[in-house]
Amino acid sequence: MIFYNGINLETGGNAWFTKLVKNAKKTENKDYYAVSNGVDVIYLEGQNEKGKEDPHAWLNLENGIIYAKNIAKRLIEKDPKNKETYEKNLKAYTAKLETLDKEAKAKFNNIPAEKKMIVTSEGCFKYFSKAYGVPSAYIWEINTEEEGTPDQIKTLVEKLRKTKVPSLFVESSVDDRPMKTVSKDTKIPIYAKIFTDSIAEKGEKGDSYYDMMKWNLDKIAEGLSK
After folding, report:
1. C-alpha span between 55 and 50 (Å, rounded)
2. Rounded to the nearest 10 degrees, how much is the dihedral formed by the CA atoms of 123, 129, 134, 135?
């Protein structure tokens, strides 16, 4: 059984996932499943068509709960004799995510509006922004061949000079040099590395979905409270 995100993450670009399952003669909803079914999709800026979706839905904990429910549903279908165990685990896990979600919303509600902006390298925090009321800004919108160009950096620097944003953030999965340039030019410090496209190495903080989200929420709230 294979689970994949969907929302054009694995099937966009060079469509590596589509080629993989086709070559392996796998069938969707029999051998592999999208965990994002039921998510309210957000599109890239200025776009509203198939293939232009922002795939980073997991950065909203409410969507993480949808993912968990979809996974549990498929596991029960494949392994019905253990239905009770899957349902018990799902209930406990979603309760943890719901508590973390409520705590995060309370934290961000207490941050002054002029400080509320999460600045990252890739513009992958649209779902996060909508969920927690924190606008986002970025160097490039989505990982492509053009990441951290002089024009992209200049545009962000000019935007930030008009704000009172206290901290910047850089993702663990990207080159941090463009954000270091933004930090140098704006004199706004990089507060922390955060997780977007991957979790931490096993044994490190952020090595599960829950721990990754807790780390992100804590660090972003701390950085914007400076």
Report:
1. 12
2. 50
Rounded CA-CA distance 214/117 in Å is 18
Homologous superfamily of 2-106 in CATH? Nitrogenase molybdenum iron protein domain (3.40.50.1980)
Q: Under CATH, domain 111-225 is a member of which superfamily?
A: Nitrogenase molybdenum iron protein domain (3.40.50.1980)
Reported as a single tens digit per residue, the pLDDT across 149-180 is 999 999 999 999 999 999 999 999 999 999 99
Amino acid 13: pLDDT: 60
In DSSP notation, the chain reads: -EEE--TTTTTSTT-HHHHHHHHTT--BTTTEEETTTT----BPTT--STT-B---GGGSHHHHHHHHHHHHHHHHHH-GGGHHHHHHHHHHHHHHHHHHHHHHHHHHHTS-GGG--EEEEE---HHHHHHHT--EEEEESSSSS--S-HHHHHHHHHHHTTS----EEEETTS-SHHHHHHHHHHTPPEEEEE-SSS-PPTTSTT-SHHHHHHHHHHHHHHHHT-
Whether residue 142 contacts residue 121, with contact meaning beta carbons closer than 8 Å, is answered with: no
Does the model's pTM come out above 0.90? Answer: yes
Q: For the chain, what are the domain ranges? A: 2-106, 111-225
